[in-house]
Amino acid sequence: MIEKNACPAAAPTPAREELPATADVVVIGAGLVGLATAYRYLERRKNDAVLLLEKDDRVACQQSTHNSGVLHAGLSYRPGSEKARLCVRGLSQMVQFCRHHGLPHEICGKVVVATRQEELDRLDGLLERGLKNGLGGLRRLGAEELREIEPHAAGLGAIQVPQEGIVDYRAVADRLAAEIAIRGGKIVLSAQVRGSRREGDRLRLLTTQGEIAARLVINCGGLHSDRITQALGDERPARIVPFRGEYYQLKHGRRHLVRHLIYPVPDPTFPFLGVHFTRMIHGGIEAGPNAVLALAREGYKKTHVRLADVWDAVGFAGLWRFVLRHRGMVAQELYRSFVKRAFCAALQRLVPEIQAEDLEPGGAGVRAQAMRPDGSLVEDFLFVRRHNVFSVVNAPSPAATASLAIGERIVDEALIAMT
User: Fold this and answer.
1) Which of 8, 201, 248, 354 could form a disulfide with 359 if both were Cys (CB 3.0 to 4.6 A apart)?
2) Mean pLDDT computed over every residue of the chain
3) What's the start-to-end Cα distance of the chain, in Å?
4) Secondary structure of residue 20 in the 3-state scheme
5) Which DSSP state fits 64?
6) What is the chain's alpha carbon radius of gyration, rounded to the nearest angstrom?
7) pTM value?
C-alpha cells in the first residue's frame, strides 16, 4: 500500500560551501552511499567536522537517481554476504527514514516468475535464500495464484515478495543533504579529487576547488570509485566497468497489464538480472533494463562517448575475458539495445500481451560494476580500508536501498581506524 504522508516535506537546499583548510572527516562522493555515510557519522560524532566533496553541481546526479527506484527486499543475494545483510537491514531503515520525513514510497510487493520448467528448481532455491536472509511473508505461488495477483503475467510458478517496494530516491538524497546541513556537515559541490599526499596522520586531498587535509577519508565515488582509490594512493583492487541499462515505458493505456513489480528468475549463466517490469513512484510502468557496455562512465545515451573511459576499459584485460566468456549474452544485449522487437520479446516471456507498439522510450542508468582481471564480476559489495582511508569500491544495486545500512557499516569500521 502507499504510505501516508507520501508528499515530501520541503527540504531546505544546503548553502553552497567553500572548501575549508581541514576537516576531521572527508567523504568523497555525494550520492546516496556518501550522503548516508556522512549522515550516519554525524549521528555518532556530532562535534566532528564532516565534509562531503561532490564533483557535480548537485548531489546524487549519477547512479543514485538514474535507477528504477526499487526498494529491494534481499531475496536473491547469497546468505551471509554483505549484500544480503545490508540490504535487509537497509530496507527497514530506508522505509523508516521515508516515513519519518514524509518522502514518497510504497510497499507494493513483487512477484518473481518462472516461465520455463527448468526455472522451477531455481525458484525454490530463491525461496530458500530469501528465508535464510530473514525475509518475511514470502509465498510460493502456483500458476493460478500468480494470475490472481498479476492477471496478465504468464508463469508456471512464482514467489510473492510482499516487502519489496518503490521510492523517490531524488527526494531521499535531497533530504539526506538537508539533514547533514542541519547537523553541521558541509557539502562542497563541483569539487573533484585529483590526487593526494600524506602529511603525518592526515591525508591532504588535491581538488578542483583547492586543498583540504583530513584525519579520515571515505571514498564513496560510485562510477569513479576505483580511480579515486588510485588518487588516494592505493592500487585499484578491481576495475569499474560501466554497463548501461536502458528502459522503455508502457504507454498510458497499457499500464493496467502490470499491477506490482514483475521479475524473472535470474539466469545463473547471465551476470545481470534480466528485463522486468517496475511500477514508478510518481506513476507509470518501466520495462527493462538490458545491460550493454557503456562508452562513458556517465554514458546514459548511446551517443555519450568519453575517450578516456573507452581507453580505460579496452586496455583492461579483464573486460576482454568477460566479453569472450559471455559473448552470446553481450551480442544479445547489444541487439536488444537497437532492435525494439527483440527487447519486447524478452518482456513477453513475463507478460505475453505486451506488444512493441505498447512501448515508448524511457530513461537509462549506468551500473558501476567492479570487475577482476580474470573477467569475473565482483558480486558482493567491496570495502577496502588502509589506515585512515576507507574505500567503497563496489556498490551496485542494492546499494541505494541499503545506503543507510552501508553508512552504518562504514562508520563502525572507520571509527575503529580513528582510535
Assistant:
1) 248
2) 94
3) 45
4) coil
5) G
6) 21
7) 0.94
